[in-house]
Amino acid sequence: MEKKDFIVIGGGVSGLLSALALGKEGHDVLVLEKEEHLGGVCRSYRVEGYQVDTGPHIITRVAQGPLKHLIDNYFDIIPNFTPHGRYYVVLNNRVKPFPWNMRDWVSFDLLPQTDRMYLMKTLFSISYLFNKGEDLSKKSVADFIGNGLSQSTIRFLNCMSYFMTGAPMEKTPVERFIDSEHYKSQSRGVLDKIYNILMKEGAQDQVYPKGGVQSIITSIISSLPKKRVEIKTGDEVLRINHAEKTIESTGGEYRYNTLIYSGFASDLPKLTENNLPENYKHSLSRLNRINALTLWLGLNEKIFNREGSEIWVDSNPYTWVVPVSNYDPNLSPKGKQLVGFAFSLPHGFNENKERKRSLKSIYEINPKIEEKVDMIHYQMLIPEKAVWTIDTLFADVKTPMDSLYLVGTDTEGRSMGVTRASYSVKKLLSNLREDKVI
Predict the structure, then answer these.
(1) How far apart are CA 389 and CA 240, in angstroms?
(2) d(CA 149, CA 35)
(3) Cβ neighbours around 3 below 10 Å, total
(4) Where are the domains of the chain?
(5) Which of 259, 308, 314, 410 has a beta carbon 3.0–4.6 Å from 85's, enabling a disulfide?
(6) Which alpha helices (H) appear in 268-312, and where do they start and end?
(7) CA dihedral (423, 295, 338, 167) positive or negative
(8) Nearest residue to 71 (alpha-carbon basis) of 293, 252, 219, 277
(9) Cis peptide leading into 329, omega within 30 of 0?
(10) Contact, 404 vs 276, CB < 8 A?
(11) 10 Å Cβ neighbour count for 243?
């Protein structure tokens, strides 16, 4: 039985980025993926002439974030990105650009002026606490919101909480709203740092990948050193014997020096024959996943003309609307438009009920869409492996077991999607270096 330097369990974006980096560092890597396709929720496929992603994907922090670091150091083929544009808020049947800073809040008249003044004062207080080193990870948005705000403002705050974390504002940490690279300042002065939060424009480094999110996976796979990295799809891991450093799967048995697990951390105890410490298994059991529904609509003419995406506060459930064919016309047939509508799902949801409710809400917000529908496609997804709430305990990349590491969006809270996965991979590589594994 051949032994590999590393075995990576899971061929999603976290596992593939890990394999790419380790292979480029000169190590022999085997990737085991139980599905017949790679990419997990970071892939694209065809539906009735349209190319849909697994959920809408906007890539954040491309200018100087973790994905750029990985691209610069390990990619041979670089994805082609196009700017996302602005986020627009639809509230009370009106549309305004999202207010990223104090200056924008002054003109954001979708909310009552008294509410805006209150929220600006609150934002200043939060900014000061953040830059003084206050821990805001256990303080919820609701903790800072007093009584007397209008229902429109409450809906807006709750919608943004779901949009950022998949949880209501009572569970959403304030820290998530100030988790942004441009909030950090090189200056030692507190006032300069506060200026960064209160006055700088947000979302300027957010992009959509040309060719769909599949282009990122294609770039990773095309950059893999073929003599170093081997990938086996349709090979499901059944059991991990970490004492002997062996894996039993549907495809055979494998040996390793170091194991990288990129599946759901909460599922790890099922594979390790109960060899994990009890307190560690308990901490993994506390990880809650985000459940989401994406509804893709192919439209027989272009209805969404703005450069950017929309946040529908008026809809029930709240909706994030991304007209992806505006970024890449090749994703839809000529003269048509492809739009993704993303919804967070309630606990204990009924899939059929949520499908009907979501489609109904789209038609209620924009009735002219219904007569233009050319294609309907639903996806039930887990876009993040862990919800970032005030009581979330993320799994660490490093486990209590020597030579066993985790990677993925349940080991890292910063940002969302591909960027969050990239932070996790950077953390993994850092830990492997500290442990002198690479």
Answers:
(1) 31
(2) 48
(3) 13
(4) 3-42+213-287+390-434, 99-199
(5) 308
(6) 268-271, 278-285
(7) negative
(8) 219
(9) no
(10) no
(11) 10
Q: Give the other-Cβ count within 10 Å of 302's Cβ.
A: 16
Cα(413)–Cα(421) distance, integer angstroms: 9
Do residues 342 and 55 touch, judged by C-beta distance below 8 A?
Answer: yes
Provide the token pair at 337: 């438009």
**CA angle centred on 361, ends 359 and 364, rounded to 5°:** 115
State the Cα angle at 402 between 235 and 418, rounded to 5°: 55
- The DSSP secondary-structure symbol of 381 reads E
Provide the whole-model pTM: 0.93
- Which tokens belong to 148? 């007397």
CA distance 321 to 84: 12
Residue whose token pair is 């082609």: 80
If you count them, how many residues does the chain have? 438
List the structure tokens of 57: 């994907």
Maximum C-alpha span of the chain:
70
Per-residue pLDDT of the chain (438 residues; tens, 9 = 90+): 779 999 999 999 999 999 999 999 999 999 999 999 999 999 999 999 999 999 999 999 898 899 999 999 999 999 999 999 999 999 999 999 998 877 788 889 999 999 999 988 887 788 778 777 788 888 999 999 878 899 999 999 999 999 888 889 999 998 887 755 444 444 445 445 544 544 455 567 899 999 999 999 999 999 999 999 999 999 999 999 999 999 999 999 999 999 999 999 999 999 997 678 999 998 998 888 889 999 999 999 999 999 899 999 999 999 999 999 999 999 999 999 999 999 988 878 999 999 999 999 999 999 999 999 999 999 999 999 888 888 877 899 999 999 999 999 999 988 889 999 999 999 999 999 999 999
Q: Which fold has domain 3-42+213-287+390-434?
A: FAD/NAD(P)-binding domain (3.50.50)
Closest listed residue to residue 391, CA positions, set 163, 172, 133:
172
